[in-house]
Specification:
By secondary structure, the chain is an alpha/beta fold. Helices cover 64% and strands 8% of the residues. It is elongated and about 100 Å long. Mean pLDDT is 88; it is low at 484-493.
Length: 493
């Protein structure tokens, strides 16, 4: 495919819609970036510079057009001890090393691990994130004047009703403009973006973290960088999958891994903190009409323009307007169908989904929730495969030979049943283990076969294994020990 056709598809498919969507995202990014900076214990400009840098760079090198990446809470909470104990320069160094780890992960194809994340885990991840987005708005809705509630309700009304008139302009952008105008000219007593923190008035500049180039520095930042890289990639890969579903288009997750690494690597040299993909902002972008790299680029570039050039005006944007946008995101992100599916889906899938939701909401840690969901999915899958394993037997007409017929998957969860099926006390001359319909997967399965054969031979039985497929025969020949045990027994007799 030629460069020009790729450029048109990934950048210029719908420039007007992408630019407007990027503007909406940029406005919504400001209070979040400030909030994440506060969480990390750093100056607000560090989160804002990071959001600008990561968004712009990922639009150029990422693998999921239309997805928004910036400074995030998931990464911010990880660096609190680092900043508190060693200072902000170590944060910049850790962000640079985080980027290196993520690029390496891209070359190692760690994006393929997403294949082991079940649909139930993804749904639980989405629902939990929707709940967290709503919970994050509560501080702006507690101990405030009644006018705040009126403005939030008015903003939601504009967001949901304006599209009935026209979809030429994203309704969240209209809501922000209308409520900001009313707030400024009406002199309303509501919280504003300026109340969240001071906006920077200068452009970001290149810097080298002021840390010693020593093994001690590496020892300090290494665990933080590794954790940041893992959490960032996990959230980015999950968000990419969700955007894939929203837009019904594929993404290059290997490229996204590398892109996230490049973005974080450069951001560390611009005085920013680490970040990753943001599902909330990505949903805003998609629902506002953004679908290409241009929307992500505009979000980052316009964010910098807003805070540096239009800072005094941006500081006057009422928080109720942005709260209304984020509530819309929360409602739109939550999979309402999953509630109805609780009664029709297999109970194991529902338990995985609910477990993911509960762990994420309880810990405010997306990584822990996804890990819990994946582990539980693995347990249920192993149990399901185990139940598909069966053993039957047949005695020969002369009563001297019994054949055991094994069917299914022989692995760590089914090895106990593999051995229990055999009656070791039955008096027979010959035993046949027919495994033509079975498959040996791991060394636990090989160990179970060893245990059965050695025990039967010790009882003086003649044993024959038939029907091994090529893969099973290979793993048994590599790891089985029953042949050695048989030779030892023969030499002793």
């Amino acid at each position: 495919m030629s460069f020009s056709s790729t450029f048109r598809r990934e950048w210029m498919a719908s420039p007007r819609a992408d630019i407007l969507a990027g503007i909406v995202v940029a406005l919504a990014l400001i209070p979040e970036a400030i909030g994440f900076s506060i969480i990390a214990g750093v100056d607000p400009r560090i989160g804002l510079y990071a959001s600008f840098s990561i968004a712009v760079i990922i639009s150029l090198v990422g693998g999921r057009p239309g997805m928004i990446s910036a400074a995030t809470a998931a990464v911010a909470v990880l660096v609190v001890p680092l900043v508190k104990e060693h200072g902000v320069d170590y944060l910049f160094a850790a962000t640079i090393l985080m980027g290196i780890f993520q690029v390496i992960a891209g070359f190692l194809r760690l994006d393929l691990l997403m294949q082991y994340v079940s649909r139930s885990v993804v749904t639980g991840f989405v629902n939990a994130l929707a709940i967290l987005i709503f919970i994050a708005q509560l501080p702006q809705l507690i101990n405030v004047t009644w006018i705040t509630y009126v403005m939030v309700a008015g903003g939601l009304a504009i967001i949901y009703l304006f599209p009935r008139l026209t979809r030429a302009v994203p309704s969240p952008l209209i809501a922000i403009i209308v409520l900001t105008t009313i707030s400024i000219y009406g002199g309303l007593n509501v919280n504003t973006v300026g109340d969240m923190g001071e906006l920077p008035s200068s452009w970001p500049t290149f810097l080298i973290p002021n840390v010693p180039l020593s093994l001690e520095t590496l020892r300090i930042i290494f665990p933080y960088s590794l954790t940041m890289a893992a959490v960032g990639l996990l959230e980015s890969m999950m968000t990419a999958q969700i955007v894939d579903d929203l837009t019904d288009t594929p993404s290059n997750k290997r490229r996204e891994c590398k892109g996230q690494g490049i973005a974080n690597f450069v951001t560390g040299f611009l005085g920013g903190m680490g970040g990753c993909a943001m599902i909330g902002q990505s949903v805003i972008n998609v629902k506002s009409g953004g679908s290409t790299r241009l929307s992500t680029f505009v979000a980052g570039a316009f964010l910098l323009f807003l805070i540096v050039v239009l800072g005094p005006l941006v500081a006057k944007i009422p928080m109720p307007a942005l709260v209304a946008v984020m509530i819309m995101v929360s409602i739109g992100t939550f999979s309402w169908r999953s509630i109805r599916d609780l009664g029709s889906h297999p109970w194991q899938s529902s338990v995985v989904m609910l477990t993911t939701v509960v762990v994420v909401v309880w810990t405010h840690d997306l990584a822990q929730g996804v890990l819990a969901g994946v582990l539980l999915s693995g347990v249920f899958f192993a149990g399901k495969v185990k139940r598909l394993f069966s053993v039957t037997s047949q005695l020969s007409s002369d009563g001297l030979t019994r054949t055991y017929y094994y069917s299914g998957q022989v692995f760590f969860a089914s090895t106990e049943r593999f051995a229990e099926a055999i009656d070791f006390k039955e008096v027979l001359d010959h035993i046949v283990l027919d495994v033509s319909a079975a498959h040996f997967w791991d060394i636990s399965a090989v160990g179970a076969l060893d245990k059965v054969l050695i025990k039967l031979r010790r009882e003086g039985r003649s044993v024959e294994v038939v029907g091994l497929n090529a893969a099973s025969a290979t793993i048994i020949s590599q790891f089985a020990t029953h042949g050695e045990a048989g030779r030892k027994q023969a030499s002793q007799t």
